[in-house]
Amino acid sequence: MNKPDGRRRTRIQQKNSQAILDAALEVFSSYGFRGATLDQIAQAAGLSKPNLLYYFDSKEDIHAELLAGLLDTWLDPLRELDPAGDPIGEIRAYVQRKLELSRDYPRESRLFANEILQGAPRIEAVLRGDLKTLVDDRAAVIRGWARAGKIANIDPYHLIFSIWATTQHYADFDAQIGMILDEPGTDPFPGAAAFLDLLYTKLLRPD
Q1: 114-165 pLDDT, tens per residue?
Q2: Any idea what the Cα angle at residue 125 is, between residues 122 and 126, rounded to 5°?
Q3: In angstroms, what CA-CA distances link 194 with 19, 95, 98, 115, 153?
Q4: For 182, left (φ over 0), alpha (ψ -120 to 50), or beta?
Q5: Cα–Cα distance between 123 and 114 in angstroms, integer?
Q6: C-alpha separations of 13 from 2, 60, 62, 70 in Å
Q7: Any residues with CB less than 8 A from the CB of 168 and at least 6 apart, and which?
Q8: Which domains does the chain carry?
């Protein structure tokens, strides 16, 4: 638990707390939860370890706060899928929002991926709860569009999984992408956006 939250925090406390979270995001996304240490986080934040422990009781508390904020960010694009909108347009927009998250929040994406690779021990309740509820709801919307002939007859869950895979890849495997494209300094996201838009547009068109 972020200890100073129990009372009004000073500007310095707010600054230090955010510095710890920013540093922890870098450390966790690089080394994973198990490989990260409080000493690494404190050093990256420019604080002593005792000072860090004034704000957070443990590595677990820092990680939990990061994941809580991340999950809200991660769920928002799917929440924006409008059942009353144009089906193909709504799904294409969802793809683009997910790709933008990968572009703008690569460390957060890797933090999430590391947690999932470890079996999601710290966010299992959220995955089985809020995330599953939201995905079930949007899958029902997509299935309804397919039954009405507005999009191709596809499995809505595997469509969502595919969107996650094809968009988050650009954050989680950015080093691999850079090495394969062999174009230092080149932004892969415009090309990815155009390709994925074409891919899903063709996939979703009804026969």
Answers
A1: 888 888 888 888 889 889 999 999 999 999 999 999 999 999 999 999 999 9
A2: 90
A3: 36, 11, 14, 30, 23
A4: left
A5: 12
A6: 11, 20, 15, 22
A7: 98, 101, 102, 109, 113
A8: 3-57 (1.10.10.60), 67-204 (1.10.357.10)
The phi, psi pair for 74, rounded to 5°, reads -70, -30
> For the CA atoms of 108, 60, 79, 107, what is the dihedral angle to 10 degrees?
0
The amino acid that residue 87 corresponds to is P
Tokens representing residue 12 in the block:
């310095």
pTM: 0.83
Helix, strand or coil for residue 81?
Answer: coil
